[in-house]
Specification:
Structural class: alpha/beta
Radius of gyration: 23 Å
CATH topology of the largest domain: Rossmann fold
Number of domains: 2
CATH class of the largest domain: Alpha Beta
CATH architecture of the largest domain: 3-Layer(aba) Sandwich
Oligomer: single chain
Strand order of the largest sheet: 3-2-1-4-5-6-7
Number of helices: 5
Helix content: 10-25%
Number of strands: 18
């Protein structure tokens, strides 16, 4: 498991969040002690053994480092590397929420205060997506959904309890967001799911084939990395092997089958304006799904 911790850029003295930053440092080292890889973004001045993902110089009184400039760069660096982590844990307030939809990696956000009327619209927009945690039940806002209440702690048994609670929460959310999905014909893994593209690694088991289908709103590019297969594209039947690729335009009827004795593995890149299951027209299917859709889009 690899966790990204996103802390405020400023030192505790400048940020006014000394107690919570101490809890972040304890969480980082507590996770490391339990065999969890941790990368820390922000949190200048924190003493921790976690690997640093910092892009900013150290911020402190008289340093000349402006958090208004560097803090957004820290946030951007964290989310741009989002696919490298199993989960991102945001301790830097509401500003990073606008990046949540830039990655398929689950995000947890710890709130140390009750959202004000001024900031509530931002919290509400990403409610249910950024997985809110309160540090005290009294700080929960009634219009927001929280996945847990976990009190801050800096040491001792309370610190161990905090690390245990967060680790259990991470494991639960990572399982819910698992990118590997098993199907009767094989499995797929989602590398990226963005507004303008989607990338999957697809494995087709020997003697299996996917449904014959088409899409109205997206095109696909298939690159074979292992095994051999036969791609149907309208009236064509195209044999493909490692290093070979096939382009599938919008509206093209297509399927892939694995006639061999070894798994067929290929990378699928989808481009278009819709990657949902509602953009599937299925004509034939070996598993009784013709005329239906399914979560894997196949």
């Amino acid at each position: 498991m690899h966790i990204a911790l996103l802390a405020p850029l400023a030192t505790p003295a400048l940020s006014g969040a000394g107690d919570h930053l101490a809890a972040v440092a304890l969480l980082a080292d507590g996770l490391l002690a339990r065999g969890v890889a941790v990368t820390l973004f922000g949190g200048a001045g924190l003493s921790t053994r976690a690997r640093r993902g910092v892009v900013a110089p150290a911020a402190g009184a008289g340093s000349g480092v402006d958090p208004a400039v560097w803090a957004p760069l820290e946030v951007a660096a964290c989310f741009e590397q989002g696919d490298d982590f199993d989960l991102i844990h945001n301790h830097a307030g509401s500003a990073p929420l606008t990046h949540v939809r830039a990655t398929a990696t689950p995000v947890v956000t710890t709130l140390t205060t009750r959202p004000s009327a001024a900031t509530l619209p931002l919290w509400a927009r990403y409610n249910g997506e950024a997985h809110y945690v309160a540090t005290d039940d009294a700080l929960r806002h009634p219009s927001l959904t929280y996945v847990a209440t976990i009190a801050d702690a800096a040491d001792g048994p309370a610190g161990e309890a905090m690390v245990t609670a967060y680790l259990a929460l991470y494991e639960r959310l990572i399982r819910l967001a698992a990118r590997v999905d098993h199907r009767p014909w094989g499995s797929y893994y989602v590398y990226a799911d963005r507004p303008d593209h989607k990338v999957k690694r697809i494995v087709v088991l020997p003697k299996k084939r996917l449904s014959l289908q088409l899409h109205h709103h997206r095109q696909e590019h298939w690159l074979v990395v292992a095994g051999r297969g036969i791609v149907t594209r309208n009236d064509e039947r195209i044999e493909v092997g490692p290093g070979e690729a096939v382009d599938l335009p919008r509206e093209a009827r297509h399927r892939v089958e694995n006639p061999g004795d070894e798994p067929l593995v290929f990378i699928e890149v989808q481009l278009g304006d819709s990657f949902g299951e509602d953009d599937i027209v299925r004509f034939e299917d070996d598993f009784g799904r013709a005329g239906t859709t399914s979560p894997d889009g196949r």
